[in-house]
Amino acid sequence: MSDSTAIVNGAPADAHEHPHPPYQRHHFESMGQQVDATSFAMWLFLLTEVMFFGGLFTAYLIYRNWYYPAFVVGSHQLDIFWGTANTAVLITSSFTMAMGVWSAEMRRKGLLVFFLVMTFLLGLAFLGIKTIEYGEKIEKHHVPGFHYSVQSFVDSRSDKEVFEKYHDKSLPLDMARHTEVYFSLYFAMTGMHALHMIIGIAILAFMIVRARAGAYTTGHITFVENFGLYWHFVDIIWIFLFPLLYLISRHGY
Amino acid sequence: MSTTIVSLPDQSTARVPKTNFLTKENGLLSWLLTGDHKRIATLYLISITFFFFIGGALAGLIRLELLTPQSDLMATDTYNKVFTMHGVVMIFLFLVPSVPATLGNFLIPIMIGAKDLALPKINLLSWYLYVVGGILVLYTMITGGVDTGWTFTVPLSTHYLNTNVLSTGLAVFVAGFSSIFTGLNFIVTIHKMRAPGMTWFRLPLFVWAHYAASILMVLGTPVLAIAIVLVALERTTGIGVFDPAKGGDPILFQHLFWFYSHPAVYIMILPGMGVISEVVSTFARKRVFGYTAVAFSSVAIAVFGFFVWEHHMFIMGVSNYSTLVFSLLTMLVAVPSAIKIFNWTFTLYKGSITFETPMLYAFGFMGLFTIGGLTGVFLGTTGTDIHLTETYFIVAHFHFVMVGGMLMAFLAGIHFWWPKWTGRMYPEKISQLAALVTFIGFNFTFFPQFIVGTLGMPRRYAAYPAEFQILNVFSTAGATILGVGYLLPLLYLAWSLKYGEVAGNNPWQATGLEWQIQSPPLTENFVEIPVVDRDAYDYEWLERQKEKEVTTSVG
Amino acid sequence: MSAKQEQHLSKHDQLLHDFHDNLDHVVPPRIYIIVGSVLLIFTGITVAASYADMGVFNPVVALFIAVVKATIVVLFFMHVKYSSKLTKLTVAGGIFTFLVLVGMTLADYVTRAWGRW
Asked: What percent of chain C has pLDDT over 90?
């Protein structure tokens, strides 16, 4: 066989003993094998992501156990409206992504581009809402390590809007200090999640360009499908982050 | 009865095949942008060897310092940096990728009858990530080193040190992803790319061992990644997740760190055990005793390996009840390893044993790994661990399994598959001598450390009580001999590239698909994808083949 | 290609055809709409539940709902319901390892308070 193995060259156009579609790589014996292998590879990658976030969930569970009152008042600082909105945004984006994969399977280019663009916009909306939320935290000095203030926790009445909703009791100083651990985990977990969103959105932008050129509507949908798996996974992480961080207990004392 | 099984072609007429994966394309870019698993394995072999000798030089410095009880060769801070870098380089840049990234990469597609791994681009990415990790480690060393110990224990690494924790953490993070992608590639390949007829239970045990190690790489390494990220965040922003002053728990770091680092030792040893299965079978001319048991033991080691990590933390302040549970589980994880040793021994029984270099290393492995493994039992028992932990007993234990075990297996594999990789044989006499020198040097270096550890000498100290000096001197003397034992292969293997005898397809008269193709292999491995209809280690089939004398190389 | 190889390859192709995850089975949009709606409804339920005082059951209910949501995303959006046994086993393996990490680490923390023998 005369084909080059340097991957910088594309698959050459010369005649083969065994004809196969142009997007089948030469080390695979059939398209079925290639599709299976790449899909399995994506699932294994998602397993690594599960374990990566797993460390953060472990830390969360331990400290929530130790410092429950601090976690409760800390979570009251998160706006339930924005959190719920973000959850709805992400669920919808998962829906549009699944519809995108379906459109690719049906070889409907226009529809595919539409759904990819919707997913992209919803992803941006999620990040926009996150920016608003992070902004609120920065304003109130609830960012660990950056002039962190326990004022709202040692004197709960000093934070009027939150006090009106939940009537939290003021915490003793040492427990109030542990709210910094809560916010550390909040930023670490949502930050890591947001990073994965950003990467996903960037790939979506790339895919929209390629989809418009018809790359995914000729029967070779693996890229869209595997990206869909990634996107749904990021949604699942948020499905757990939302109740753990926002919904610890919204019934006041 | 002959004393060697080596069967080489007539040297006056034999030539290394002109068309092979090494000569297929020329130019730097054809190597740096290659998708060929064999070329990537070669790139890895060169980089791993480079970092091995750096780690070895650091070891030399450690042993030099420990010649005298005082901390007189270097300041104690410097000593801390030296042993930390030795650990980081040897573990992350040598032991973890050693067999999988070189021999595994090279052999797995051929052994299962495929043209390449499932994801060649990811394979190349793995190598580049390794190189970046290596460069970051070099950067760390040049800019002052890091002295936390390779275990990065908090709060030392997050609050009390001014050294390059961040760059080392980043290096390990990047190298970790190299490992993850290699493991991921292997799992997909072994599941999806086997040739027709190559069922799971016809696979060579080398493949089973790598499959098990790959599961550990994929599931364990990400937890190390998040532990490093948290340390980095703690160091730069003071978020408080490990800081007791803010309510954090330093032990949490250790849970996350050892959740990876214990399976890591199995990532390191399982591929080596895979090599030993192949070597023992070939040089005893017998199929491995209890194939199924060895295959399942590999997977069992991987699974149980996830349940025992707290045995590295018995004295750290974890609950007594959890130490009970983890101690019991540690006893269980020793069983599959023992099963493998028994099965290799039974393979030898009534076999036709010859003592070529790979077999010498394999014998070394079997003995030294057994000793190292048995000493692990003392450490897994909480009561004795309290006295032995953080002493030289631990240092001796892990060097017996890792150097006496894993490194010997690596050398066994390199020698065994050298003719397949390069088309040339290594020089037998000097390599046997080197193996002997290594074995002697190893025992002189590390056996005294068991004694000195039991007597109470702590690890990671530049200065020690004077009564331990003589054993330390023995140990350093042994280390010098060991160094010679490792330098020799570097020299004679390089020599053999030009002057070694032409090997032919199957100098060892071994079974296995890799020995049915030319040496070095074609880029696409097989002219036709083979159809497999026999089990592994089928020596009867080999006898019948010899009678037919069919050559399958392309000139 | 030899006759034997041809025979084996067609059988091989047959086997591969059986492995096809999704090219043969297309999930209809109707399913996605139902799943998406269920997810949104459950989100509303879980928010409402956090306002109710159920004592120790608050986190139990919240986690339970989250697990249900994640499960239907995995089964339907990620097509695992229609996928091969290998895929299902892979997902199970990942969940299992995650539970080992969380569970056995927590075992240490929970039992610390039990004090010395």
From this structure: 63
**CA of B129 vs chain C CAs: smallest distance (Å):** 24
Q: Is B114 helix (H, G, I), strand (E, B) or coil?
A: coil
Question: Can you tell me which residue has the tokens 């608050």?
Answer: C58
- A contact residues 98-127, partner C, Cβ 8 Å cutoff: 98-99, 102, 105-106
Domain match, C10 and C43 both: yes
From residue B328, give the alpha-carbon distance in Å to each of A158, B382, B494. Answer: 53, 10, 47
Lowest-pLDDT range, A249-253, B50-54, B207-211, B503-507?
Answer: A249-253
DSSP for residue B158? I
Arithmetic mean of pLDDT, A104-112: 93
Report percent pLDDT > 70 for chain B: 98
Same domain, C18 and C70: yes
**Each residue of A60-98: b (16+ CB within 10 Å) or e?**
bbbbbeebebbbbbbbbbbbbeebbebbbbbbbbbbbbb
Establish if C108 touches chain B: CB-CB under 8 angstroms: yes
**Which pLDDT does position B46 carry in this prediction?**
97
Give chains near C: 3+ CB pairs under 8 A.
Answer: A, B
Sequential DSSP letters for chain A: -----BTTS----S--SS---TTS-TT-SSHHHHHHHHHHHHHHHHHHHHHHHHHHHHHHHHHHHHTHHHHHHHHHTS-HHHHHHHHHHHHHHHHHHHHHHHHHHTT-HHHHHHHHHHHHHHHHHHHHHHHHHHHHHHHTT-STTSS---HHHHSGGGSHHHHHHH-PPPPPHHHHHTHHHHHHHHHHHHHHHHHHHHHHHHHHHHHHHHHHTTTTSSS--HHHHHHHHHHHHHHHHHHHHIIIII-S--S--
% of residues, chain A, pLDDT over 70 = 90
pLDDT in tens, A139-173: 999 998 888 888 888 888 888 888 888 888 889 99
Domain ranges of chain B: 30-548
Chain B residues lying within 8 Å of C12, measured CB to CB: 196
Across A14-23, B117-126, C1-10, least confident range: C1-10
* pLDDT at residue A19 in the model: 60
The residue among A8, A27, A179, A181 with the most chain B CBs within 10 A of its CB, best to mutate, is: A27
CATH code given to domain A53-246: 1.20.120.80
Q: Give the C-alpha separation, A102 to C77, whole Å.
A: 10
Confidence (pLDDT) at B13: 87
Average pLDDT, chain A: 88
Choose from A23, A24, A42, A44 for mutation: most chain B CBs within 10 A. A44
pTM over 0.90: yes
Residue in A closest to C104 by C-alpha: A58
Whether residue A2 is predicted with pLDDT greater than 80 in this model: the reply is no
> Cβ separation of C5 and B310 shorter than 8 Å?
no
Residue B447 CA to residue B445 CA, distance in Å, equals 6
Clarify whether residues C71 and C21 are in a common domain.
yes
Tokens of C108: 């240490």
On the 0-12 / 13-18 / 19+ scale of CB atoms within 10 A, B323 is: buried
Average pLDDT over residues B375-384: 95
Task: List, in sequence order, every beta strand (DSSP E) within B28-151.
Answer: none
The residues that bridge with B34 in the sheet, in sequence order, are A6
CA distance B104 to B65: 37
Q: Which fold has domain B30-548?
A: Cytochrome C Oxidase; Chain A (1.20.210)
Q: Which amino acid is at A175?
A: M
Domain that holds residue C41: 3-83
**Are C39 and C16 found together in one domain?**
yes
The answer to whether ipTM exceeds 0.85 is yes
Q: How many residues does chain C have?
A: 117
The total domain count for chain C is: 2
